[in-house]
Amino acid sequence: AFINFRRNELNNPKRFLALVPVLSIAIFIALICAVNIFPSPVQKYVPLVSGDFRAEMVAQHVPSEAPCLAIFGDSRVAFSINGTSLSRPGCAAVNYGFPALGLPQYLHLANRFFSAGSQPAELLLSLSVTTFQIGPGYQDGSSIFSRVFWHRMIMSSAPTRFGWFGFERLRYGVRLVLGHGQIASGWEWSSRLGRWESDAIDQRQLALLPSTEKELDDMAVSYTQRPLSISYKNDLLATAETLSKFTTKIVFVIPPVYPGFDAILAGKPQGSVQEFYDGVHEVAKAKAIEVIDCSVASDCNLDEGSFGDPVHLNAAGAEKYSRYLASRMGEIRSN
């Protein structure tokens, strides 16, 4: 009788039309749930919406208690430093890096996770020139009308996060099917390595590709689209002073680049990379902060085969770089 009732309902055009919105929503929700458990590349897609949203992505993979060593930075930390390689017995190192994070997000993460009584003994701060280029302002997200406020709300609970990522991954999958190309690399957090793994970088060797020179030039153009902020030294100084409230020791790191990349960068308009390096050392000297300078890759046991692209290390390079940083941190502690 029930089946006949439902069949009669569907045979009635008005009733069927009334069911269409409900069925559409149900199918949409089912698809959102499905794409969150699909295999690569869709399941690994991580949407990038705003700096604050990216900071929330970091929050999903870090412990609530502060580690012994916190590592802050952008994609050159996220993909290139194995937190587990810098950990010691009874003393964990945690990678807080994520693509396109900036100084405001570092301070946000420090305020959020390093409360009184739960602070890292050491903080490794990786500094890229792009972090100090003039760009869009940062919103604090305190207003209910701000986009950042709603991004925070979305990321604040597992169900809304699940729904958001399902929707974005569904949109991404549809674009792939329609042939609109790869929107973003598949990124996945590796607890074993203590960093983000990238399908597009980890197994790649830039030096062996016919596109090496073009990629170096394209990246140099990308890195010089915006000028270095005239206040970058003051911004770094203020950031260091604020972060010093959350840890007993800060160490600056200048991350490695593919051999010869800085020379290409310097030849571009607004390619003020050496000025930036000098400024980092100047601020470090003023604040008595140690600097691990890997701007020359060979100084940090890296070579051309260590790079997946001009500024990111592949899996083998990340392992060598992480071990080098662990060794240097050991030396700094013993001094």
Order of helices and strands: HHHEHHEHEHHEEHHEHHEH
**Structural class label:** alpha/beta
Uncertain regions spanning at least 5 consecutive residues: none
Note the quaternary state here. Answer: single chain
Extended strand count: 7
What radius of gyration results from the CA coordinates? 23 Å
Strand ordering within the main sheet = 2-1-3-6-7
Per DSSP, the total helix count is: 13
Distance between the termini: 84 Å
Strand content: 5-15%
What does this structure look like?
The protein has a five-stranded parallel β-sheet with strand order 2-1-3-6-7, sandwiched between helices. Strands 4-5 form a two-stranded antiparallel sheet. The chain has helices at residues 2-11, 13-35, 51-59, 75-78, 83-86, 103-113, 147-155, 158-177, 212-223, 232-243, 261-266, 273-286, 315-334, and strands at residues 69-72, 93-95, 122-126, 187-190, 195-198, 249-254, 290-293. The chain starts with a helix and ends with a helix. Helix content is 46%, strand content 9%. It has 335 residues and is of the alpha/beta class.
